[in-house]
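Can't paste images in this forum, so I'm doing it all in text. The chain is below; anyone willing to post the predicted structure tokens underneath?
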Amino acid sequence: MPATILVLNGPNLNNLGKRDASLYGTKTLADIQDDLYSKASELGVNLKFFQSNHEGAIVDFIQESSSEANGVIINAGALTQVGYSILDALLDSGLPFIEVHLSNIYAREKFRQESVFAAKAIGQMAGFGPSGYIYALDHLTSVINS
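Text version of the structure:
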């Protein structure tokens, strides 16, 4: 049976394509999902996407979906610095996860340079734009399959 990877996106990522293109690029979240579906097909894995502007909804999704999954890619957006309940849900799931950011959070405002996820993630992609999701999917798939 192919592995299933959850792809989680937090607040404001539903507005990709409308946001500051110099930071976030011009692709929409749907465009990124299409790119990921293509890569997932090549890799032989299944994806399950979820986006919410509400922390509790993300926690609920992780709790409801983790038993059917093998790993997680997460862009927590503005919850990166404060999403402890999401981190707890990820840790409780026992799944390997990779943190993704479209922009390089370490080259931005000081408050964006902290992540509650970084120390527990198996990796972090920051500053690679939408390609960061593809890199994360490729690496997470290799971890799951090893």
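The longest strand covers residues 4-9. The chain has a mean pLDDT of 95.
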